[in-house]
Fold this sequence. Notes:
Layout: E1 2-7, H1 14-26, E2 33-38, E3 53-57, H2 68-80, E4 84-88, H3 90-95, H4 97-102, E5 107-112, H5 126-129, E6 135-138, H6 141-147, E7 154-156, H7 172-178, E8 185-190, H8 199-210, E9 216-221
Parallel strand pairs: 1-2, 1-4, 2-3, 4-5, 5-6, 6-7, 8-9
Amino acid sequence: xxxxxxxxxxxxxxxxxxxxxxxxxxxxxxxxxxxxxxxxxxxxxxxxxxxxxxxxxxxxxxxxxxxxxxxxxxxxxxxxxxxxxxxxxxxxxxxxxxxxxxxxxxxxxxxxxxxxxxxxxxxxxxxxxxxxxxxxxxxxxxxxxxxxxxxxxxxxxxxxxxxxxxxxxxxxxxxxxxxxxxxxxxxxxxxxxxxxxxxxxxxxxxxxxxxxxxxxxxxxxx
Length: 222
């Protein structure tokens, strides 16, 4: 199978890691021929370079929503002739529409990676690209509920985890010494440092608990 992936960039993030892990898994089957289009040059997950995939950098110049990306992606799709276009993110999904329609290539849309209380309904949003998507995938039921895509072509796949990433962890005592942790209990929140992750609630809860029990250390891990 020939698959053309499209994402803004591979900076640090859950969506980006999921794509890299998917590509690494699919690359184990030599019958899968894959190419990847990136709009940004930042690549946090360096193991993508060891995967069996060709990478195209169609970098934006000046404009945040550079219209030239439409043609750049179309040109890659026309030359590669994929069986599937797999988009990750709002703008990649929009940029891929001409290639999907003109070249008649099925498009899988992995744009839903959150579950906001209020979803944008602007013209450059999911309202534009959902009708052109053949399959719409979320990583949660809550995401599908928030964006409300057509149910007949929508589904969710929970995040996976590669346990090889934690095979060689340092000893607990080493970690405690490094962060000067002397308390009996440790509670950690692991998420990117952004408003969407709501560290504020975590910190407020920590303050309340510390009023009752000082034998707890709270960690924020970004």
